[in-house]
Design brief:
Elements: H1 4-14, H2 19-27, H3 30-37, H4 47-64, H5 73-92, H6 99-119, H7 125-132, H8 136-146, E1 155-159, E2 162-165, H9 175-181, H10 184-191, H11 195-206, H12 211-218, H13 222-242
Antiparallel strand pairs: 1-2
Length: about 240
C-alpha cells in the first residue's frame, strides 16, 4: 500500500515519462478498478471486458493527474474510470460485436501503429495482414466491426449556423410514410401552404427528392430548404390538428 509521499514521487516520475512508475501505480490501484466495475455488472457484458476498459480509465488518470489538483489520487481516478466505462457502454450498446472480433480489431490497430513507426507511413491492409499472418478479408471485417454505427441524426456539416443531419440528405422510401402523404386530407392541407413551402413539400415528399436536389432546382441553399421544410411540416401538423 502506497502512502501519500510515495504517490507524489511516483506521479512526478510519470510526468517525466517513467514507465516503471506508471506500472507501479497501475498495479497498486487495480482494486479501485474492481470496485468500480462491480457497479456495472449484470448489463450483458463480460466482467473482464469492463475491467480492461476500467484499466484504460485508470491509466488516463495516472497520466493526467496533477499534484496541484489538491485532491487524493483515488478521488480523481474514480470518475475517470467510471467515465471510461460509461463511454464504452454508450458507444457499444447499439451494435453487438463478438469478443474475438473486438480482440482482432485491437490487434489490427496495434499492428498498424507498429508498422507506421517502422515504415514512416500508413501501412496497407496487405502489410498488416502479412504481419498478423491472416487474410485481408479478416482485417477488413475487424476494422468495419470496430466502426461506431452512424445515426440518421448525426450532423454532417453546418451552414449559416444550422446543422444539416444525415436524415436531411437521404430519400424517403417507406410505404407507410407514402401512404400517409397520399392521404387526401393531407393533400388538402398542403394546398393551403404558401407557394414556396408547398413546392418544397411537393418535391420532398411527393417527388422523393433530397434537400440537396431541391436546393439546386429552386436556387436556394440546403439550409434554406431545410428551414422551409421544417416550418411547413409544423404548419401541416397544426392544420391537421385543427381541421
Amino acid at each position: 500500500m502506497l502512502d501519500d509521499v510515495q504517490y507524489k514521487l511516483l506521479l512526478a516520475k510519470v510526468r517525466t515519462g517513467d514507465q516503471s512508475a506508471k506500472e507501479i501505480l497501475l498495479q497498486n490501484n487495480l482494486n479501485l478498478v474492481r470496485s468500480v466495475v462491480h457497479r456495472f455488472t449484470n448489463r450483458g457484458y463480460e466482467w473482464d471486458d469492463l475491467f480492461q476498459i476500467g484499466c484504460i480509465g485508470l491509466i488516463k488518470a495516472i497520466e493526467r493527474f496533477d499534484p496541484e489538483f489538491n485532491v487524493k489520487f483515488s478521488t480523481y481516478a474514480v470518475p475517470m474510470i467510471i467515465g471510461e466505462i460509461r463511454r464504452f457502454l454508450r458507444d457499444d450498446n447499439l451494435v453487438k460485436v463478438s469478443r474475438p472480433l473486438k480482440e482482432l480489431a485491437y490487434r489490427v490497430h496495434k499492428t498498424q501503429e507498429k508498422l507506421q513507426g517502422i515504415l514512416g507511413r500508413e501501412p496497407t491492409i496487405s502489410e498488416v495482414a502479412d504481419e498478423l499472418t491472416i487474410s485481408t478479408n479478416e482485417i477488413v471485417a475487424a476494422l468495419e466491426a470496430a466502426q461506431p454505427p452512424a445515426s440518421l441524426y448525426d450532423q454532417t456539416f453546418f451552414d449559416d449556423g444550422d446543422p444539416i443531419q444525415r436524415l436531411d440528405q437521404i430519400k424517403y422510401d417507406d410505404q407507410q410514410e407514402n401512404g400517409f402523404i397520399e392521404n387526401l386530407a393531407l393533400r388538402e392541407v398542403v394546398l393551403r401552404l404558401p407557394a414556396r413551402e408547398r413546392l418544397i413539400i411537393q418535391m420532398r415528399y411527393f417527388e422523393d427528392k433530397t434537400q440537396s436536389e431541391i436546393a439546386g432546382t429552386v436556387g436556394l441553399s440546403q439550409v434554406q430548404v431545410s428551414r422551409i421544410e421544417k416550418l411547413a411540416l409544423k404548419k401541416i401538423r397544426d392544420l391537421l390538428q385543427t381541421s
